[in-house]
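Hello Y.,

Per our agreement to keep a running log of every chain we model this quarter, I'm adding this entry. I've kept the format consistent with earlier entries: sequence first, then predicted structure.
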Amino acid sequence: MTQGHGDDIHRYPHIRVNFSSNIYTHADLSELKAYLCKHIGVIENYPEPEPYSLEAMIAQRMDIPAACVLVTSGATEAIYLMAQTFAHRFRHYAIGCLPTFSEYADACEMFGMTRRDDRSHTDDALLWLCNPNNPTGIALDSAAVKRMRHGYRLTVIDQSYEDYTFKPLMAAQDAVQDERYVLIHSLTKTYAIPGLRIGYITASPTIIRELRHYVRPWAVNAMAIAAAKWLTAHDTKAIPDLEAYLAEASWLRQQLNLIPGIKVGATHTSFMTASIEQATACELKEWLATRHGLLVRDASNFEGLTPHHFRISTQRRDENMLLTAAIRQFVGE
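Predicted structure for the entry above:
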């Protein structure tokens, strides 16, 4: 699905606060920007056909072999690479929880796999699990993940938002040591650089070798590699105080749930799904964007949700107060 994702800020010229993207929007990227300005010359030459040097850096930081890391141009490329690589082995795919990110289904169907929802026949299905889950923000601990994947030969766990929760998730070492798991990670989310598409896969050496058969040369551009190397070396997370950020998310959820007709689901992250009784999510989104310059995510195109569902990502207190006040105005309270 190339259309219908969140953060379509390009469609709205006067947005003041962007609640539609799950990525933390107040990261201090000044040092990274300064570094890239000084090293702009990297665009004058081809990057490595495959970013082995970056993979080695990531592996060293995670204390796993370099042969267990494969860097991709964002987590979405990793999803499609997984589907392409294993379509010959698995005729079907299964989704661990709904609603969830649509690209798992889109990627599998692009390469000829069909959906299987019957858990009595799991051996020929590739299981996908988004954890923490997008759009709900719910995160399963590693024990729950292991219970869910029971019976599947291979489970792909997209942990793109692993730095947005305190839930104990699967570690890279788990996937390296057990060929039943593949983990997808997103430097885009960890360091709040969505314009630089950069992610990576951790898995056993055998699985990584299989994936490399389908990797395109120069798939990751030189600027993204340079940025990822600097970020990996410095490892300054985008969210300076996760505890405070999640506390603010809890406050925002409570305030929204006080508004008549608004219901917000539980979350273990900074983003959450909500529903509105009085109108559709599309109507709410357009009104907020055009009247107040506030952008939320119309979540009606997630399987399992309705035209009344939307998703929001926590911002600063003053910005969150703008949103709650605007929604109160919309519902006529």
